[in-house]
């Protein structure tokens, strides 16, 4: 393929009014969600799309001191300069050209991730094949088009609020309910106990990245006790119980026998494998949008094969990102579960009670139509590429808004 045009569009989806979510030791304010839409076009007029934008639970921008707006500038500048007018025979060649642009590490990784996904979208459209078929050829696997989902919701509420939300998630047929505790050690214990008592079919998953941000109430001994307690209550996993780079902390908690998950905050594809090599996590959470695309995630998928660690993609963002990670799950061997973020007023979910976490309208509007989600299963079509079409009207409908998307305010 010969690349003729590369564009990055910074978009913001307002949370209006802004939401304040009290947690133990402070309040988290939610202003908006930011996304960078990346559009790549070939000389023959074939267009591929992807999303970028930091959604790491580390709550830091990939580009410290900068924003998604400045990343879009990088796409339109250094990345476009590296690729426009170039013939790309192997998608990995685009990685090399971006690397030659001399971008800092995180910027390079984010750019490579977005371009890799967009080029796979193009290649699939050129060949008239869905991306999962291209990937299955590479893995030597038999792809599946039906993908079980676990629901990702629940943020800082009373224990009974989590239970009500989880019951709705279970009724919708999702494999599991993942929530964000952090309301205080006693409240967190009570929450997991109530969820274990209430849910019959859905698994309970904890995303506990707040614990390592609150240093007073959640010291090392408290975190260890909470992890052990969650495991005793039958938690499917406890995600990011320590800071992403605290491998010794992961190893120590793994000694309890509790099932741990992590990886979304790793800064590179190689970092995913490094975390897996600690032997401390049972679930490795790579993401094609953040770990060098399908090409970068392959090493981690292959690492997990035949080992007691399962690759389960992190996927928190728009329906376009959902499609991108779904194609990996459909094709990758020994990978069979995907995260489905639940935002307010999700039109794909039919429920009297809204289990959404917060407003993120762009998550739905970024593509035309809806994903085929029924009874907790996503079914991919055999349409070429990613199988979705992006409505470029969103560029005007969701202009970028400067400033942080979320802020943590701590009590004095």
UniProtKB/TrEMBL annotation:
EC numbers for this chain: 4.2.1.40
Catalytically driven reaction(s): D-glucarate = 5-dehydro-4-deoxy-D-glucarate + H2O
Pfam family, one: MR_MLE_C
Highest rank taxon of the organism: Archaea
Residue span(s) of domain Mandelate racemase/muconate lactonizing enzyme C-terminal: 159-259
Pathway(s) of this molecule: Carbohydrate acid metabolism; D-glucarate degradation; 2,5-dioxopentanoate from D-glucarate: step 1/2
Annotated GO MF terms: glucarate dehydratase activity
SMART domains for this protein: MR_MLE
Designated name of the protein: glucarate dehydratase
């Amino acid at each position: 393929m010969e690349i003729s045009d590369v564009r990055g569009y910074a978009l913001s989806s307002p949370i209006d009014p802004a939401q304040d979510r009290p947690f133990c030791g402070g309040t988290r304010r939610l202003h908006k969600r930011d996304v960078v839409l990346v559009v790549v076009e070939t000389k023959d007029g074939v267009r591929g799309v992807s999303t970028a934008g930091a959604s790491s639970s580390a709550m830091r921008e990939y580009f410290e001191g900068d924003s998604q707006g400045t990343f879009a500038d990088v796409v339109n500048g250094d990345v476009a300069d590296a690729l426009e007018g170039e013939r790309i025979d192997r998608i990995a060649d685009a990685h090399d050209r971006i690397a030659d642009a001399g971008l800092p590490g995180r910027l390079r990784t984010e750019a490579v991730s977005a371009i890799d996904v967009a080029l796979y979208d193009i290649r699939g459209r050129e060949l008239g094949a869905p991306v999962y078929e291209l990937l299955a050829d590479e893995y030597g696997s038999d792809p599946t088009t039906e993908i079980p989902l676990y629901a990702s919701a629940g943020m800082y509420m009373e224990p009974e609020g989590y239970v009500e939300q989880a019951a709705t998630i279970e009724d919708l047929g999702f494999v599991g309910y993942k929530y964000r505790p952090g309301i205080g050690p006693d409240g967190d214990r009570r929450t997991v106990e109530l969820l274990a008592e209430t849910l019959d079919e859905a698994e309970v998953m904890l995303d506990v990245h707040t614990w390592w941000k609150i240093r007073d109430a959640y010291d090392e001994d408290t975190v260890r006790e909470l992890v052990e307690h969650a495991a005793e209550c039958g938690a499917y996993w406890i995600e990011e119980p320590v800071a992403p780079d605290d491998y010794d902390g992961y190893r120590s908690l793994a000694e309890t026998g509790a099932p741990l998950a992590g990886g979304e905050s790793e800064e590179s594809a190689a970092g995913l494998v490094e975390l897996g090599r600690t032997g401390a996590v049972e679930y490795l959470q790579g993401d094609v949008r953040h770990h060098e695309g399908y090409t970068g995630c392959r090493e981690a998928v292959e690492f997990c094969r035949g080992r007691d660690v399962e690759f389960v993609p992190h996927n928190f963002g728009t329906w376009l990102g959902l499609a991108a990670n779904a194609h990996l799950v459909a094709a990758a061997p020994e990978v069979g579960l995907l995260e489905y973020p639940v935002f307010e007023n999700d039109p794909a979910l039919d429920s009297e009670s809204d289990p959404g976490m917060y407003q993120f309208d762009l998550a739905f509007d970024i593509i035309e139509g809806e994903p085929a989600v029924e009874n907790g299963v996503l079914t991919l079509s055999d349409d070429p590429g990613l199988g979705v079409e992006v409505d470029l009207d969103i560029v005007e409908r969701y202009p970028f808004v400067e400033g942080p998307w979320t802020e943590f305010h701590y009590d004095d």
